[in-house]
Protein 1
Amino acid sequence: MDKVSRNPIEAVADIPPGASLAVGGFGLCGIPSVLINSLHEQGASDLHVVSNNCGVDGAGLGTLIASRRIARVIGSYVGENKEFARQYLAGELEVELIPQGTLAERLRAGGCGIPAFYTPAGVGTQVADGGLPWRFDTGGGVAVASPPKERRTFQGREHILETAITTDFALVRAVKADRHGNLVFHHSARNFNPLAAMAGQVTVAEVEELVEPGTLDPDEIHLPGVFVQRVVPLVPAQATDKLIEKRTVRS
C-alpha cells in the first residue's frame, strides 16, 4: 500500500476543530515542524495536544499556542515557552502535567491496546492525591483540578493507576521511510516520535528521505508501517531546516 501524500497541506487537511493530536519531539529535537506549520495554515482550532512540551515561542507547537489554536495540553514540561506558561496561568489553557516516563508509557499503552497500568511514579504527590491545577480561573484560583488516582499495592509498594492515551491523529518526524510507512528515526530524534505514532488513529509522518519498499533492512526499522497511515516526503530545504533550542558557542 502506497501511503505517500502529495504534500503536507494535503496530509493534514482533514484534521477537524476539536481533534486530539499526539505530537512527537522533545524540545525542538525531532519535531514535525513542517506538519505543524501546515496545520497552522490549515486553520483547525480547539485542539487537544499530547506532547512532551509545546516547542518554544514562535517555533514548533509554540506557533499553535500563540495563535490560540490549542485548548488543552497533556505533557510533562512547560519549558521554554513563555506564552504557553502565560496562557496556563491566566486560565486560557488547560494543562495536564504528568511525569515524563508516565507520559511515554501512556502513549505506548494506547498503541498496544492496553487500557491502563499501575506505576509507582507520582505516589506521595498530587499526581496520586489529586489537586494539581489543570485550569486556573481568571482570578488565579483553581477552576479544574486533577482527580485522585486509584491505588494498589504490589510487593509491598504502592502504585497508582494510569490510563492509556489514544488520539485522533498523530504528527511525527522520521529521517527515513518507505512507501509502506516503515520508519527510521535519527539518534535522539527518536524520543517521543514512535510512541506518539503508536497512539494516533491516523498517523502522519514527515520524512527526510523516502525510499522504495524493500530498501530498508528489517532490523533497521524502528516503527513498522502498521502504525503509519500517511507519509510526507520533505524537500531538501525542509529536511535541513532544523532549529536549535539553546545555542551554545565558545566565547
Protein 2
Amino acid sequence: MTTVRLPLFPLNSVLFPGLVLPLNVFEERYRAMMRDLLKSPDDEQRQFAVVAIRDGSEVAPSAPGLPDPTARPEQGPAAGFGDDPVRAFHEVGCVADAATIREREDGGFEVLATGTTRVRLRSVDASGAYLTAELEPLPEEPGDEAGALAEGVLRAFRSYQKRLAGARERSLSTGTDLPDEPSVVSYLVAAAAVLDTPTKQRLLEAPDTAARLRDELELLRSETAIIRNLPSLPATDLTRGATSLN
C-alpha cells in the first residue's frame, strides 16, 4: 500500500476532484500550514488534504463560553477535534492543489485550490503546528455503463436545475456547456446539487464512477419531484448546505 503524508485541512464541507476551493485562512494553525507551503519551490505542487468533519468544530473556540464561561479554550493543531482527531473526520477526503496562496496584511491568507484525487485517511499526526495525515490514494474506476449513466444524470441534472431555479425565482444560465466525461460529470453534479454533507460524503466515497452516477440519478429524480410538488422552496442553503468559515 502506497501512502503519502500531507498537511490536513478539515472543513464542514466535502471537496471533490476538479472542483475549486476558495479559503479565507485566519486561524494560526492553518496560517502556519500556508507559510510552510509557500516555502516549497515554485515548480512543486503546494498540496494539502481536505477532509469533512464528522464530529467537531471547523473553527476552534478562541474565548471562554458556554457551558463554562471560565474554561480556557483549546489550543493546538487538534483543537475542536477531541482526543483522537482521526475519529472526528470522515475516512475519505480529497487532495487540494493550491494554485494561489496570497498573504494579507493581517497575517491571514487568501487561498484558491483545486481538488485533485481522492484519498483515504489512515492516520493523523498532531505533534506539529498543524495536523498532518498519512493518506492512501484512491483510484477512480469507471464501473459498468458509466457512459450511459452519465448521459442520464446530465438530463436529470438539467431538469433539477430548472426546477431549483424556478423555486428560488432565479433565472437559469444555460450558456455553460456541461462536461461529458463520466467521472467529471459525477463529481460536478455531486458538488453542485443542494445536498447535505453526509450525502455528499457518500457520493465521494462511491466505489466507482458508475455507482456514484446511479446514486446521483436517484437523488436528482427525488429532489426534482420534491421541488415540483412544493409551493415554495425552503431555505435549503441555510438548512442543508454547510458554510466554511475558513
Protein 3
Amino acid sequence: MYILAVAVSNKKHKKWPIYRTVCWILGVLFAVVSVAGPLAIRAHTDFTAHMFGHLLLGMLAPLLMALAAPMTLILRTLNVPQARKFSKLLKSWPSQMLTNPVIASLLNVGGLWILYTTNLYSLMHQSTLLHLIIHFHVFAAGYLFTISMIYIDPIFHRTSFIFRAIIFVAALAGHGILSKFIYANPPNGVPADQAETGGMVMYYGGDIIDVFIIFILCLQWFRSTRPRIKIAINQ
C-alpha cells in the first residue's frame, strides 16, 4: 500500500524521496522478522532471541517507519476533501493524547516494566491472543514514542524541544534501569544466563538505536534555532 501510494503521489506532486521508501520497506521487514520466521520461533524458548525481537519490533522498525513519513504520504495521496478529513483526525484529542511525549513514554517504557516484572511474560507464551496483543502493543507504543520525540510527519500539537528532551532522558533511564533489573531478576520461567544476556542486549542494543533518535532530535533542534543570515541587497 505504501509503494502504491508513492506511485499515485508521484503523478500529482514531485517525486517522493527514495530513501523514505527504503526506510519503510526495511521497517516492515524488521517488524516481520521479529514476529515470523526463525527468530520468532526461537524467541518462544530463548529469552535472548526474544530480546533481539523486542529491539527490532519495538525500536528499530518504528524508527525506520517514522522516518518514512507515512502520514505525509497519505496526505499527498488523498484528494483535498479526504485530506482535510484525515487532518481533522490527526488534530483530534485521541491523537493529541497518544502522541503526547509523556503518555507515549508511559505506554512504551511502562508497558515493558509490566511485561517483564509480572507474570505477563510467561502468560504470553500460553495464549496466542495475548501474544498477538502484546506484540502489537510493543510495536504501536514504540512507534508513538518515536513520533512523539522526533517530528518527521506533520504534528498539529507540538511540544518544545526542551520538554521532549527531558521526557526522552527519563524514558532512557527507565529503559536502562529495566534492563539492569532483568539482568539481576529474571522474569518467571527465564534461566539466569539468558536473562543476563537478554538484559545486556536490551541495554546496549537499545542505546545504539536511541543514539539515532538523539541525533535526529538534536539536528532538528539546531535547525530550528540556528541564526538566519540576512543578505542585504542594494536597490
